[in-house]
Amino acid sequence: MSISFEQSMFVPRSPEQVFDVIDDFSVTPRWLERCIRVQKHQPGPNEVGDSLSYVYLDGLRNGVMEGKIIARSRAEYLSCRYTGRKMTVQIAFHMRPHGNGTYLTHCIDIVPRGLTRLMAPLIRRTLPGQTSTAMARLRSCLLRSPLHH
Asked: What pLDDT score does 146 carry?
């Protein structure tokens, strides 16, 4: 049972600028509300196959999901898959040049595991609002980023 949602928006920044903000995992907590940090385990530039840990706020305690970068092409797309006790989450961002900016699409696919499957209706109902909030916060981060590149 997979729960999927996608949302798109226009941002008056180049695809390179959009990608660079999304690809910088140190910025993720600024736009993803429950995120405490995304930590990459390998030094150097991000590459497909790099291992990640996503630390998030789960109620009153922290949760951790282990992940990997599964697809990456600068200014075009970035996709990661995270697995935890409760679910597997795949996220993807697709960038398409559009006039003086970028048309950005954020796709999320969640597969609940174990007893979390019972929460699928709640996840399905809350995912659009959570995604809209994240996209609005991401847009604010992008608008605050410098125009050079």
From this structure: 73
Q: What is the value of pTM for the model shown?
A: 0.92
* Residues in the chain, total: 149
> DSSP letter at 26?
G
| pLDDT surpassing 90 at residue 67 | yes
Alpha helix ranges (H) inside the chain: 15-23, 28-31, 120-144
**Cβ neighbours for 36, distance < 8 A, ≥ 6 positions apart:** 29, 55, 56, 57, 62
Tokens representing residue 118 in the block: 């019972």
User: Within a 13 Å sphere around the CA of 140, how many CA atoms are in the beta-carbon half?
Assistant: 11
How far apart are the C-alpha atoms of 28 and 52, rounded to whole Å? Answer: 13
